[in-house]
């Protein structure tokens, strides 16, 4: 933004002003509701991001990027297990993984509860298969395409044109993206679009976070009151300002690491609870029965609805015969049975 406006944005007062403006935007978006502000702003963000992605793909090394994308997917799929078990071997590896791998893992764990509740809210009525495909599959492909197009274009510019984007990133990583746009047509326009897109990303992330916090603090009501949404929005902005004043990115990384640790156990407990609930779900049990039709006399009786008066639906022909009184073998000796 400094490149566009010419204003020094490194001072704390200017950064606090930016936080205040962004806080007003995402608080207003959250207060307007999911069906209005949050939805329209998210859709607009995706349209703008897609347009910028296609522009860079079309004006950059298109064939080189497509080849890089396919080779990257193949390399990722082939080395997934090895990369997943990769551990640091020296101090440099530890420093790099703490700044990137471990930080990003902790970031998503700390966001997991908020993102999960929000996605569950907007995915109501979808099947589990649809939910997993859309939440895990589609974003992974989109992120892969995004990093391939922009990161690959920067690599190509450095390798073939000696654009110096890598040196710019080493000096200040925030300017590397604009260094890439400078190598493409309409750099002034795309730089403005990139700044707007960054702001929209912040707003769309924070408004969903504000909504989830309001839902949690209102006993799970899916339409929390506007004053409650406003309160959580202001608290979120205030927290960002405090972290900025305390130490900037390093303070944020430390806070993320500390907040993610207890959520690991919460996520494990939620995963176990989900499996238990699915096993008890009547719809899943009915589908399992339909996929495995009855074959034995006992199962055939159960399929026909045959049950004794004790309420046992299965086992009316327990062990080849009925107990005295017509009750199944599952009944206790003191129960009096008979077919209903």
Describe the 3D structure.
This protein has helices spanning 2-5, 12-32, 34-59, 62-78, 80-84, 91-99, 101-122, 128-161, 165-171, 176-181, 187-216, 226-246, 249-280, 282-291, 297-303. The chain is mainly α and 340 residues long. It has one domain. The protein starts with a helix and ends in a 37-residue tail after the last helix. Mean pLDDT is 80; it is low at 300-340.
What's the SSE blueprint?
Layout: H1 2-5, H2 12-32, H3 34-59, H4 62-78, H5 80-84, H6 91-99, H7 101-122, H8 128-161, H9 165-171, H10 176-181, H11 187-216, H12 226-246, H13 249-280, H14 282-291, H15 297-303
Helix pairs in contact: 2-3, 2-11, 2-12, 3-11, 4-8, 6-7, 7-11, 7-13, 11-12
Mean pLDDT score: 80
Order of helices and strands: HHHHHHHHHHHHHHH
Find the count of extended strands (DSSP E, 2+ residues).
Answer: 0
* Shape summary: globular
Structural class: mainly alpha
Strand content: under 5%
Total helices: the number is 15
Helix fraction, binned, reads over 70%
Major sheet: size, sense and barrel closure? none
